[in-house]
Amino acid sequence: MTNKELVLSFYEEVFNGHDLTNLDRYLHPDYKQHSTTVANGREGFRAFAQKFLSLKPHMDILYALEEGDLVVVFFKCTLENGMVNKVFDLYRVTDGLLTEHWDSVEHDVDIAAVVAVNGNGPF
User: Fold this and answer.
1) Long-range contacts of 38-44 (CB under 8 A, 24+ apart)
2) What is the pLDDT along the chain (123 residues), one digit of tens a residue?
3) DSSP collapsed to 3 states, the chain
4) How far is it, in rounded angstroms, from Cα 54 to Cα 72?
5) N- to C-terminal Cα separation, the chain
6) What is each CA distance from 9 to 1, 53, 113, in whole angstroms?
């Protein structure tokens, strides 16, 4: 399995499947987190994800790119309440496990109200 395939499998099972049972298969125990609202480690991710998954998110992956040990994923995250987030996630993969994470999130993108000066839209 490539690093990109690992990350995409992680998204499908954990985020879209709302399933935290196999985190050991995806996350290193010492997973390093750069998102300021999530604690380090597998258990830090689990604590965040339990709350986040209660919002019933669905990730529509638009792009996933791999270069060496890094994988970047760009996606539209739609919550059950209709809120849409625009997200870039970057992961470092070491020995088949996610070992480090960075992100950039644009929260509550009102797609219907966006008037792009360039005509391209947010996605």
Assistant:
1) none
2) 999 999 999 999 999 999 999 999 999 999 999 999 999 999 999 999 999 999 999 999 999 999 999 999 999 999 999 999 999 999 999 999 999 999 999 988 876 666 677 777 778
3) CCHHHHHHHHHHHHHHCCCCCCHHHHEEEEEEECCCCCCCHHHHHHHHHHHHHCCCCEEEEEEEEEECCEEEEEEEEECCCCCEEEEEEEEEEECCEEEEEEEEEECCCCCCCCCCCCCCCCC
4) 25
5) 28
6) 10, 17, 33
Distance in angstroms (rounded) separating the CA atoms of residues 119 and 66: 29
Rounded to two decimals, the pTM is: 0.91
Question: Do the Cβ atoms of 59 and 16 come closer than 8 Å?
Answer: yes
Alpha-carbon distance of 6 to 103, in angstroms, equals 18
Determine the residue type at 38. V
Q: Which two tokens stand for residue 16?
A: 């879209």
